[in-house]
Amino acid sequence: MKKDQSLAQGDPVAFQTAEAQAGSHAHRLNSLRAAVLGANDGIVSTAGIVIGVAGATPDFAPILVAGVAGLTAGALSMAVGEYVSVSAQRDSEMALLEKERRELEEMPEEELAELAGLYEEKGLTPELALEVATQLHEHDALAAHAETELGIDPNELTSPTVAAISSAIAFTVGSALPLAAILLAPADIKIPVTAIGVLLALALTGYLSARAGGTPVPRAMIRNVLGGFLAMGVTYWIGRLVGISIG
Q1: Does this model's pTM top 0.85?
Q2: Domain boundaries along the sequence of the chain
Q3: Most distant CA atoms of the chain, gap in Å
Q4: Are 119 and 132 in contact (CB under 8 A)?
Q5: pLDDT for 63-112, tens place per residue?
Q6: Is the separation of the CB atoms in 236 and 228 below 8 Å?
Q7: Which residues contact 103 (CB under 8 A, 6 or more apart)?
Q8: Cα-atom radius of gyration of the chain, to the nearest Å?
Q9: CB under 8 Å, gap of 24 or more: what pairs does 124-129 form?
């Protein structure tokens, strides 16, 4: 019997229910972006640091110090960067929402006409657009204008604190793999073991991000692996050249 390849797989009601429970795609994709970015940045940047140092010296202590310093600085940098950027985004969204709230208070009729006009632009007839706008105004005028006019969901503004903590954790988890690999591997194969481990980790994050985002898996995996391989190769040879020049 041929397997059902449709999205609903024979049960459209269950599919629609699960899709509704999943919530906002924008919010989920933003969380996915932050997690993948943090993990990949941790993997690639820490691998680049420790492999670069290993290219200059095989000694355990310098590699450990460089790796821990890179992990700590990177995690804090990711946390601060996410907090600042998300805070700026949230402040802008709050300012737009406050402006929209004042417009609704001071010129409700004009705002109703504006919303109806936006729905007309989406393809509704003038009569239906006005009816929809009127009902939405009665239900939650601010939410209607925020979502249709500004592209903002006032009930799902991103938290800067959550974004900062999530990014720091993702970076730390990503950094731990190359650091552990290069410290635990035998001295004569430290770099190959670390490189293989990092490429496998990047393939895994590419796979997970593609599965979570519903995008093609091979493309995401290849993109991650090639980018990581290039970064590690460049930093290794820079470290090796510096080690030779000062050795």
Answers
A1: no
A2: 37-246
A3: 81
A4: yes
A5: 899 999 999 999 999 899 989 998 999 999 999 999 999 999 999 899 99
A6: no
A7: 110, 111, 145
A8: 25
A9: none
